[in-house]
């Protein structure tokens, strides 16, 4: 066997081994969920389809009630229409920036939501809400605002599917990424190695590496994806950064 052929085979074997070890040891994977908040809201259906065609893994839908946050978006009637318009496949992660999140669980499930991500700050009984979301057939996401410590989320981490660490004050798209939230992500990753951890707010090509290194694997990106001339490339770049960090973490273990 000549030297060139041997080195090519060696490289392939190493890649195969790395791929196998990563898929065996890591329960989570890189997923990119565009936030359609900053898209043309009069064309939400086609914007959602466009994002899925550009390689989005899921759609992050921001529900605001003008009370929990100082902004207003849409509710379950809009989600029902979107589901009809985009079909059964796209995964809807509902980011519920609302007071009394308990009241929208059943309507959102009926409208076709897949995951109900509520804010810890908005409820006095997270345990009961988690149970109600599960009984409605949705996955459970639990979000914390920048002022909430990760230790407050930790008691619920084994009962949820995803933890959302906000990297801006919730309410508006296009804000500056808060890098000082990254220790929360790192701590969660160290304590809960297989938990889905999402970041949301100011995440794009300039900030993704911090998120990926800290251990986030579900990436919400609004303006960076929506306002790009080439959303497909931005989504691919974000996913590659996260996948590489996951791979590195699996090799370091
Ligand atoms: C903010 C929302 C985010 C926002 C993200 O309250 O929860 O999902 O739309 O948008 P960018 O990526 O522009 O910060
Ligand atoms: Zn959001």
From TrEMBL:
Origin superkingdom: Eukaryota
Signal peptide: 1-18
Keyword set, alphabetical order: Carbohydrate metabolism, Cobalt, Iron, Isomerase, Manganese, Metal-binding, Signal, Zinc
GO terms (BP aspect): carbohydrate metabolic process; cilium assembly; pentose-phosphate shunt
E.C. numbers: 5.1.3.1
Record text on cofactor binding: Binds 1 divalent metal cation per subunit.
Pfam families in UniProt: Ribul_P_3_epim
Gene Ontology terms for molecular function: D-ribulose-phosphate 3-epimerase activity; metal ion binding
Record: active site: 62 (proton acceptor), 200 (proton donor)
Recorded catalytic activity of this chain's protein: D-ribulose 5-phosphate = D-xylulose 5-phosphate
CDD domains: RPE
Cofactor requirements of the protein: Co(2+); a divalent metal cation; Fe(2+); Zn(2+)
Residues noted as binding a divalent metal cation in the record, renumbered to the chain: 60, 62, 95, 200
Keyword hit for DNA-binding: no
Subunit architecture: Homodimer.
Recorded family membership: Belongs to the ribulose-phosphate 3-epimerase family.
Biological role stated in the UniProt entry: Catalyzes the reversible epimerization of D-ribulose 5-phosphate to D-xylulose 5-phosphate.
HAMAP family the record matches: RPE
Protein name according to UniProt: Ribulose-phosphate 3-epimerase
Source organism: Sparus aurata (Gilthead sea bream)
């Amino acid at each position: 066997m000549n030297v060139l052929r041997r080195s090519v085979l060696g490289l392939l074997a190493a890649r195969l081994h790395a791929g196998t070890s990563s898929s065996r040891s890591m329960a989570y994977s890189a997923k990119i969920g565009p936030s359609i908040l900053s898209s043309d809201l009069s064309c939400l259906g086609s914007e959602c389809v466009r994002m899925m065609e550009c390689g989005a893994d899921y759609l992050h839908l921001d529900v605001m009630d003008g009370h929990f946050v100082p902004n207003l978006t849409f509710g379950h009637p809009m989600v029902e229409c979107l589901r009809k318009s985009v079909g059964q496949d796209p995964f809807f992660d509902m980011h519920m920036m609302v007071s009394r999140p308990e009241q929208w669980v059943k309507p959102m499930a009926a409208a076709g939501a897949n995951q109900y991500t509520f804010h810890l700050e908005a409820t006095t009984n997270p345990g009961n809400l988690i149970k109600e979301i599960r009984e409605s057939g949705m996955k459970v996401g639990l979000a914390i605002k920048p002022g909430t410590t990760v230790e407050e989320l930790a008691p619920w981490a084994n009962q949820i599917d995803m933890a959302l660490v906000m990297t801006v004050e919730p309410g508006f798209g296009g804000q500056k990424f808060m890098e000082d939230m990254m220790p929360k992500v790192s701590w969660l990753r160290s304590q809960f190695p297989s938990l889905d951890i999402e970041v949301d707010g100011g995440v794009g090509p300039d900030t993704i590496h911090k998120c990926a290194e800290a251990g986030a694997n579900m990436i919400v990106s609004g303006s960076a994806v929506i306002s790009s001339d080439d959303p497909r490339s931005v989504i691919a770049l974000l996913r590659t950064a996260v996948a590489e960090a996951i791979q590195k973490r699996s090799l370091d273990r």
